Task: inverse folding
């Protein structure tokens, strides 16, 4: 159903909210973090307008840390809006900063080697979770 996300991995340490290709990256990051004893919950929004604000807030209320991951540029996009909304309605639930993972605010490079550096990946999501939990 449009507007209904789903929890695709349950966890207690932090919530990663993602959509599209970032969902697979988030699951890979969750696997890596699990090996370190960090149990993250992964939410697939499935749609971004409308988005499942209730589900994200409920998850934040359990984990108290939030990471928003997507392939779009980090500034001025969907992730920024989710972060702003959760900072507003979920502020009292936060134990650390909301961390966004996205592409830099620059044109997408043509060279594959540069594109790989440009695109977010599981290692950047892992670093974001660690930053939120620090």
Result:
């Amino acid at each position: 159903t449009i507007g209904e996300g789903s929890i695709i991995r349950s966890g207690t340490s932090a919530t990663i909210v993602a959509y599209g290709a970032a969902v697979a990256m988030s699951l890979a990051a969750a696997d890596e973090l699990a090996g370190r004893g960090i149990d993250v919950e992964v939410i697939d929004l499935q749609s971004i307008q409308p988005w499942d604000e209730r589900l994200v807030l409920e998850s934040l209320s359990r984990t108290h840390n939030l990471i928003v991951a997507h392939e779009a540029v980090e500034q001025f996009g969907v992730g920024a809006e989710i972060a702003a909304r959760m900072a507003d309605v979920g502020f009292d639930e936060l134990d650390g900063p909301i961390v966004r993972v996205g592409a830099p605010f620059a044109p997408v490079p043509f060279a594959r080697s540069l594109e790989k550096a440009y695109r977010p990946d599981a290692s950047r999501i892992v670093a974001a979770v660690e930053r939120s939990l620090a």
About this structure: The CA atoms of residues 10 and 16 lie 10 Å apart. Helices lie at 22-34, 53-63, 78-89, 112-118, 122-133.
